Amino acid sequence: MTSARTMDHVFTPSADPNWVISEAGYDCLLEISRGVRFAISNGFLGVRGARAIHRGGRWVATSRTLVAGLFDTADEEEAIPGLVATPDWLQIHILLDGEPPVHRPGDGKSQRRILDMHRGAVITERRLSNASDVGVLIRSLHLACLNQHATALQLIQLENTRGEGEVQIALNASFEGLDIGLLPDRMEQGFGLWHVLGSGKRLAMAAELSLRVDGQKVSPMISGPFKWAWSWKSKPGQVACLERLVTVARGDTDDADPGSDARDALAAAQRLGWSGVVAAHEAAWASRWDCSAVEVEGDPAAQQALRFALYHLNGAANPDDERVSIAARALTGDDYHGHVFWDTEIYLLPFYILTWPEAARALLMYRFNTLDGARAKAAGLGWRGALYAWESADTGAETCPSRALGPDRKVIDVNCGLQEQHISADVAYAVWQYWQATCDEVFLRDAGAEILLETARFWSSRAQPEADGQCHIRGVIGPDEYHESIDDNAFTNVMARWNIRRALDVAALLLARWPERWESLSSRLGLGNAELEQWRSVAETIATGLDPGTGLFEQFAGFFTLEDIDLANYAGRSVPLDVVLGRERTQASQVVKQADVVALLALLPDEFPRDSGEKNFDYYAPRCGHGSSLSRAMHGLVAARLGDTDAALDFFREVSAIDLDDSQAAVEGGVHIAGLGGIWLMAVFGFAGLSLHSDYLAVDPRLPATWRSLSFGVQWRSRSLKIRIGRTTGSLEATLETGEPMKFVICGEPFTLSRAEKLSVRMKSNDT
């Protein structure tokens, strides 16, 4: 039997303040952004953490549930696919003696909301009363199960704190705002089945509710599908406990049966009961934290920022679904329509590869499953191979809009879908990183090799030989999106060369180790030795923009001749630089929107020999206006590697503030998941100096002065290891928890790491 005593513990958040994000009171100006910050997700269901308890329907609902992969296209000119809004299953309406209850005037602490990141749950507490002075304390918890992705749970406890009166509670799933073609097929009590008008996909939802007052179950007054209502006489000390289980399923094909899937998931959850659901969910989160936690001593703000980042990263992926990827705002908001960008491969995949390889594999399989869409895009533009969509939904077709409103509210052409082509090399980069870290032979043979070969084929057709003896890639947009239709962007060309060379490596590997697979794949792709030789020629002759004399990469052809603007004169601005300068002057200047050459330095540091890395960073960092949330993380990573930990820590704090600082309005559209991935990158690849090599891992730490220690875990080729870097002691400890002995390089010195004993090394330099 459910009782207040057995339910009390779920409303108690983690004791460590760095595990929780909390806020008291209510600010209507910040409610949407805070709802995003308090979002929960399990990679399939994303629920914005807005207030679900409404006083007699007077408040406008701001909660929202998104389902990964549930796309539709609106019936309008030049419409693009977007995630479909689904029924809001969290809403609760309450009346006391028929009146909407209110908060006591001036009592800002009468309501509280907590994101418990350790447990993956949102907890709320509210004290309400009516004109007759009937008072209630309402506590709630909701979560999206990390172990069973179809299942969500809401628990509510209502305690009468004073006065006698009638309590009325009504619960319903709101269908308001479902304006992108979600149409009902079946509606029953506790069950619904809908189809998406354009794509034909289907959505099913099943629900089970139970109310107990002082431990006794109370039957509802049912008023219709997905609607429940209860009414009872309440007296001081009385406690009512409400349990709501909801399951959701998506059907992508005609033979799928999401209705049965949702009902089966509900039946499984009912067998566990709410306490079993909570326990399994918390165990799943404990396992994820064990694999992915990053611990910082000496900097509580950095520790909380890391936990916030890791909470959203762990909640954004679903290793069980290879048909979806992670959107630019994950499942926490509607910006960018749920589309997938290069963010996933460059800013997110490193985290999953080294802490959750199963999730990384699923994300890369999404790219394999959309490879035909990439081939079609390349062919449509007159090239061979695979050109991935700059913005991708479920099919791999290009979903980038062709027009948008500029910062000055004028309609402008958007060329990214046609010209921002480095995406194909970015996907290839992630494939190779995964292969290097996991040695997943099945993935490489069945999917990864084909991605590498088809993206290399694209670059080898895209880079054209010219009279100067070099191959050029003209008319592109690099990561710096302030400059369009440029030639020989250094990031694009060097990444393309790297892509081609890795494809040649994988071709040789397949031929040597799996000749039958190579024969089958090369035959299907029509890939022969003559074409491979042409690839080598392109890789050897592609223009990179590197000046051997200075060691500087020219960001693109002609960049050094543009107007050089001192950005220090525009410090303290509150709008992007292209708004301040105007679009035309920005394009005619060396002002960079976001890391471009610096991003290349972060991804391929070996392309910058000797001190050229520092020279390029010193040149480009002062010219970057950081007009994208992606930018500062790359600068912070590189600054840390170069030893400028003060600058790196400043970048770290600026990235952390994007989603945690209440002054940022941009968070209303969802958390900046790439920035959150960048926080992990700065800590692990930057301050810890972790790097991946062909047969070993290496670290070269550079910790900030305020960090006494940094600890984290990684997975490497079926091994799990934990690393602790002590700045104050100048020591590094590494423990191999599972797997065979491995080579581990610390500050350039090789060691053998085995399970036999912990490796403890006194580092030569105290730069840590």
UniProtKB/TrEMBL annotation:
Catalytic site: E481 (proton donor)
Coiled-coil regions listed: none
Keywords: Glycosyltransferase, Transferase
Residues at which substrate binds: W342, D343, K593, Q594
Residue ranges of every copy of the Glycoside hydrolase family 65 central catalytic domain listed in the record: 307-680
Biological process per Gene Ontology, one example term: carbohydrate metabolic process
Domain Glycoside hydrolase family 65 C-terminal, residue spans: 691-753
Span of domain Glycoside hydrolase family 65 N-terminal: 25-249
Annotated SUPFAM superfamilies: Galactose mutarotase-like, Six-hairpin glycosidases
Gene Ontology MF term list: carbohydrate binding; glycosyltransferase activity; hydrolase activity, hydrolyzing O-glycosyl compounds
Tree of life domain: Bacteria
Family: Belongs to the glycosyl hydrolase 65 family.
Classification via PANTHER family: GLYCOSYL HYDROLASE-RELATED, PROTEIN-GLUCOSYLGALACTOSYLHYDROXYLYSINE GLUCOSIDASE
Protein name: Maltose phosphorylase / Trehalose phosphorylase
Organism: Caballeronia sordidicola (Burkholderia sordidicola)
